[in-house]
Each structure stands twice: as structure tokens, then as C-alpha cells.
UniProtKB/TrEMBL annotation:
Gene3D superfamilies: lambda repressor-like DNA-binding domains. One of its GO terms (molecular function) is DNA binding. PROSITE patterns: HTH_CROC1. This is Helix-turn-helix protein. Signal peptide: none annotated. It comes from the Bacteria. Residues 20-73 form the HTH cro/C1-type domain. Pfam families: DUF5753 (PF19054), HTH_31 (PF13560). CDD domains: HTH_XRE (cd00093).
């Protein structure tokens, strides 16, 4: 991982908590025994290991001491990570802290550290693959729930994430599983939707991007899963996090069992989906249908005489 990615507070906090838990388990001490030895509450030990709170360098040294971690390089690295983790509240601008959920702020950091991302969507194109027009139209649905400023910030974040994640140096392998139902939802009008699907087909040709469409006639339902994303952070399959979102509620889940379950579900349906070439053809076929429908609608607006001239010109050509 590059130095820049190593400075991400959410990633640093995760590494510290995993290292502490592993060190405690190697020492043979229970969480309750650690709490007694350090004079902490049991809940403090538990919350640190769950990543719910950060740990100060002083407390970290004390914990490593009773875990008998003696390697100075390892200790120094963990102390640096602990300091980085405690900077999390200062990472983003004030408007990010005011207008983005804590889960999304964490996701933005984990995306920068991810080596692979598996993402499932049942209803919409992923936020960072959306065109500006679709991002505007999608966020407009929430005008009763989100303020104009909140929508503006979220739009700006959406439009910056594609370059920050998929076009960065050493980008992650991105696998998008899209339910075919998403291709039948018109967002922002026929032209806007057609432009969006055309853009999706183009991005699907990028070397690190893989898009598959799960056909409607498959007979299996994934819609109950909502939107979720599994982000691999290293070579170990358990070094991963899960992000899931339903409506305006979202969360980052680090429970290995939940991460494995969602990864397995994704892989199972990935194999049932159209292959990448067939998926791209399906997307482009939908673009053609939308363009044809738009052309018919425009033609219907013309006076009858003008339509006849247009048809005659078409026959002559």
C-alpha cells in the first residue's frame, strides 16, 4: 500500500484494532483479563477491538506491553497508525462532516485503499459511474429529505469518485453486478438515460472494470439485498469490509462472517449473469431502444406535412 493510502484514518484504525486483537489472542488473555490488568472497563477493550473508538498512543503502548509485543519496528508502526486513526475527524472538510454520513466518509477512505471492489445494484447505476445529469436527477428525488446544500455536496462527491477510485494509480479491480431491472428505469428523461447507459458501456471496456447484467428471466431475486459493496483491502480474503445502503441509511460492516456471506452471494450471482460481452450488448440494445423511442416522440411533435417531408427524404437517401 502506498504511503498516501496508509495515511487514511479509517484504514489505519482498522489495522490497529486487528493487530491488537491478534496480539491479545496470541497472548492467551481474555478481554476481561486485559481490562483488569490495564484498569480499563471491559466495554473499552471491546469497543477498541471492534473499531468503535480509537486508542491513544499511551494506551496502545500499555496494551502491547501486556501482550508482550517487543518488536520495536512493529510497535513504532502501530503507534504511527494510532496517531493517524485519531485524526479521522480532521480528514474531511466541514461540509463533508456536515453533509455526508459517517459510513460514506469511511467508504471514501476504504475505496482509496481497496485492491478489488465487488458491487451489486438492483435499481440504479453506481454513484461514481453516474453522469452529471443522472446524479442531479437521482438526488432530486430526495429534495424532501436532503437540503439543497446536502444534495450539492453529495453530487460533487459522486462526480469526483470515478477518477479518485477507478482512474487512480494502481486502481482496484472493479466488478459491477447490475440487475437488468436497473436498465428499465428512466432517470432524468429518455435522452439522459440513454447517455448514461452509453457511458456505462464505454466504461465497461476499461481494463480494470468488469460489468455483468443479471437477467430478469433468471428467476432468482437479489433485490432484497439492496445495494452492497465488498472492498478487498489486501491479499487475505478476510482483509475486507462491507458497505451497504438502503435509501438514506448506510453502514460499513467489518464482521468477517458478513463480509464472506455477501462476497459468496455476489460470486454466485456473478456466474449466473450474462458474460461481459453479452452484458455490454444488452446495455447498448437498451440505448438503441431509448434513442428510437426518443426519435418517435420527436417525430410525433412535428406537423404532419413536416413528417411527410422527413419520411420522403429518408426514402430518397
Amino acid at each position: 500500500m502506498s504511503a498516501a493510502r496508509g495515511e487514511l484514518p479509517a484504514v489505519a484504525r482498522r489495522r490497529v484494532r486487528l493487530a491488537l486483537r491478534a496480539a491479545r489472542e496470541r497472548s492467551g488473555l481474555s478481554q476481561n483479563e486485559v481490562a483488569k490488568k490495564l484498569g480499563w472497563s471491559l466495554s473499552k477493550v471491546q469497543r477498541i477491538e471492534l473499531g468503535e473508538v480509537t486508542i491513544s498512543p499511551t494506551d496502545l503502548r500499555a496494551a502491547l506491553d501486556i501482550y508482550q509485543v517487543a518488536d520495536e519496528r512493529s510497535i513504532a508502526a502501530l503507534l504511527a497508525e494510532a496517531r493517524t486513526a485519531r485524526r479521522e475527524r480532521y480528514l474531511t472538510t466541514q461540509e463533508y462532516r456536515d453533509h455526508l454520513t459517517p459510513g460514506l466518509v469511511q467508504l471514501l477512505q476504504f475505496e482509496q485503499a481497496a485492491t478489488a471492489i465487488r458491487e451489486y445494484h438492483s435499481t440504479l447505476i453506481p454513484a461514481y459511474l453516474q453522469t452529471p445529469a443522472v446524479a442531479e436527477a437521482t438526488l432530486a428525488w430526495f429534495e424532501q429529505t436532503l437540503s439543497e446544500e446536502q444534495r450539492r455536496v453529495r453530487r460533487d462527491v459522486r462526480l469526483s469518485r470515478r477518477d479518485q477510485v477507478l482512474k487512480r494509480e494502481d486502481p482496484p479491480e472493479f466488478c459491477l453486478l447490475l440487475d437488468e431491472a436497473a436498465l428499465w428505469r428512466t432517470v432524468g428523461g429518455l435522452a439522459v438515460t440513454a447517455d448514461q447507459f452509453e457511458e456505462l458501456a464505454a466504461v465497461s471496456r476499461w481494463p480494470n472494470v468488469h460489468v455483468r447484467v443479471l437477467p430478469l428471466d433468471d428467476g432468482m431475486m437479489m433485490g432484497t439485498f439492496g445495494y452492497f459493496s465488498v472492498l478487498d483491502l489486501g491479499a487475505d480474503p478476510d482483509d475486507a469490509v462491507l458497505y451497504r445502503e438502503i435509501y438514506l441509511e448506510d453502514e460499513v460492516v467489518e464482521d468477517p462472517a458478513q463480509v464472506r456471506y455477501h462476497r459468496d452471494v455476489f460470486e454466485r450471482f456473478w456466474l449466473r449473469a450474462f458474460d461481459e460481452d453479452a452484458s455490454r450488448a444488452t446495455i447498448l440494445a437498451r440505448v438503441y431502444e431509448l434513442r428510437a423511442k426518443l426519435a418517435r416522440a420527436e417525430s410525433a411533435k412535428l406537423p404532419r406535412a413536416a413528417r411527410q417531408v422527413s419520411q420522403d427524404q429518408g426514402m430518397e437517401s
